[in-house]
DUF4142 domain-containing protein
Amino acid sequence: MRLSLNMLPALRRWSCGGLVVLLAACSSGGGSDASAEADALNEHKINEAAITDKQEADAKFLVRAASNALLEVELGKLAQARAAAPAVRAFGTEVVRSRLDLLAALRTLAAAKQLAVPSALGDDEQSAYHEASTQTGNELDKRVMALLVKTQKQDEDAFDDMKDDAYDGDIRGLAAKYYPPIDEQLDAAKEAAEAAEKLP
């Protein structure tokens, strides 16, 4: 995934402004040291590339988190409607509530950062949902819960990483806010999955 085209002017402004400041710092103080200036320019280029990579990682995080949340909402609805085990139905209700809240936060933040997040299931998510929805009875419970544990583990890992590593402070803040409930819900998902596995 690439950064939004809307972000390019801002990135360009940041890059040019940073370069002007850097060159001014290198040329101040009378004499010039060509090696020091070259080192400074190289360091600037490396730092700029790293920042771009981090911004792209931030954007990918928002997309992946929204994709997983969309799938989890649909799986939760499926569990509510068709699960055999009460624990799976109850978990479905909770996951729909929590992920709709998360989706709203992701969409708001993405809009503020001029980034796009998916509004519908992607191909991989549609395929996973279809595979679960074609099951019946206890097999549906098992498949739904296996998928929910898998996606929520991905969420837990991603939010844990991004609460510390996101380049953007707002994205770090969102990850830090939602990490604890995501972590707790993963434990609940594992319990519901164990209940589903015990079904005949």
In short: The chain has a mean pLDDT of 83. The radius of gyration is 22 Å.
